[in-house]
Design goal:
The chain is α/β, with parallel strands linked by helices. The protein has one domain: Rossmann fold (3-Layer(aba) Sandwich). It contains 16 helices and 5 strands. Helix 5 packs parallel to helix 10.
């Protein structure tokens, strides 16, 4: 699919899932991927970055970047690599022939084993074809997932008005605790975009300079990163008819209802395969693998309590409580008289859902 203009009708069959790392983006993306008509691309912007578009796009620069953003998204949809087209688990698709799913799974596992054995960067462009004829299949729907596009959310919403954008947000205690856990296990790279973060109005409003940010403890650096990027995405997407937002806790607490609402928002019919995946992924009782999309009930919502010290929680809260997004968790960051804001979109944040 080639996106040529803001009126291109094919945009209506495109959904972008955006969020910070360790915010439930992969699980939500796999809920979409379980639909037989969905072509899923997993974090393609990590494989084919576009230097024409800043990672954090200032509002005043957006108009000049519209065409570049459209071309970039079109490139992302056509990226066939092991990382972008080979995420597990593999789901049967409407276009599959007999044994296609089994063969695709075997190919992915084999290529990943080779990749790990010879020490290749997972983001390396290892070509992997998924045999999905997107251009000639009128029922197919593309879903792109990104953990590095919060600073581009407003630009994408402006450039692709007929597409759908879903922003998923995890409570900062949970998100930061999971990042710290990943660093301790050697699963994540320790990288924070100091210069980019402090160059936008959201950072300047809080008096955050590059030097100040670099001199803070890691937990506070992560808290500022969470606050600034979510504050920008929150502001950029609020009020847009093609964007909706939800808390990770609400998805965990009632995944079937939330998924149905999100599918309706994206223009996808509900399918029993998705319901089956949700029930399977939420009834898992095995080992706690770091990148596993299977969940042990509500357990993920409370793991941060074992990882973050009381001092770390206080540091994070001191930063987040003064932000607009912090008010989405009123039991933790809001004054009692403040009400939880509701989004003017299909998926509403329910007041009183206090689990982070």
């Amino acid at each position: 699919m080639k996106i040529k203009s803001a009126s291109d009708s094919d945009q209506s069959r495109l959904t972008l899932i955006l969020g910070a790392p360790r915010s439930g983006t992969t699980w939500l993306a796999k809920i979409f991927d379980s639909h037989p008509d969905v072509l899923y691309r997993h974090e393609p912007d990590l494989v084919v970055p576009d230097n024409r578009i800043p990672s954090i796009c200032a509002d005043e620069n957006a108009p000049a970047l519209i065409e570049a953003a459209r071309g970039f998204v079109a490139d992302l949809m056509h990226t066939h690599t092991l990382k972008t087209a080979g995420s597990l688990p593999v789901f049967p698709k409407r276009h599959d022939r007999p044994w296609t799913r089994v063969g695709r799974t075997a190919a992915i596992v084999s290529l990943r084993l080779v990749q790990k054995t010879i020490g290749l960067d997972p983001r390396r462009r290892i070509v992997f074809l998924d045999h999905f004829d997107r251009d000639n299949d009128p029922s197919s729907h593309v879903v792109l997932k990104s953990i590095s596009a919060l600073g581009r959310a407003g630009l994408f919403a402006e450039a692709l008005p007929e597409a759908r954008i879903i922003l998923i947000m995890r409570h900062p205690f949970g998100q930061i605790a999971s990042r710290l856990d990943g660093l301790a296990r050697g699963k994540l790279l320790d990288a924070r975009p100091f210069k980019e973060l402090t160059s936008i109005p959201e950072a300047r409003r809080f008096g955050l300079s590059d030097e100040r940010l670099r001199n803070l403890p890691p937990v506070e650096q992560m808290a500022w990163e969470w606050a600034i990027l979510h504050e920008k995405a929150y502001a950029d997407l609020s009020g847009r008819p093609n964007a909706t937002m939800l808390r990770y806790a609400d998805l965990v607490a009632d995944p079937l209802a939330r998924a149905r609402a999100l599918f309706a928002f994206a223009g996808l019919p509900w399918h029993v395969a998705t319901e089956r995946f949700i029930r399977t992924s939420t009834s898992y009782g095995g080992p706690d693998w770091y990148f596993d999309v299977r969940k042990q009930g509500l357990t993920p919502l409370h793991k941060w309590r074992k990882i973050l010290s009381a001092a770390d929680q206080a540091r994070i809260a001191a930063i987040v409580r003064n932000t607009s997004v912090g008010q989405l968790w009123p039991d933790y960051f809001s004054a009692p008289e403040r009400a939880t804001p509701l989004w003017p979109t299909e998926v509403r944040l329910q007041a009183g859902a206090s689990a982070p």
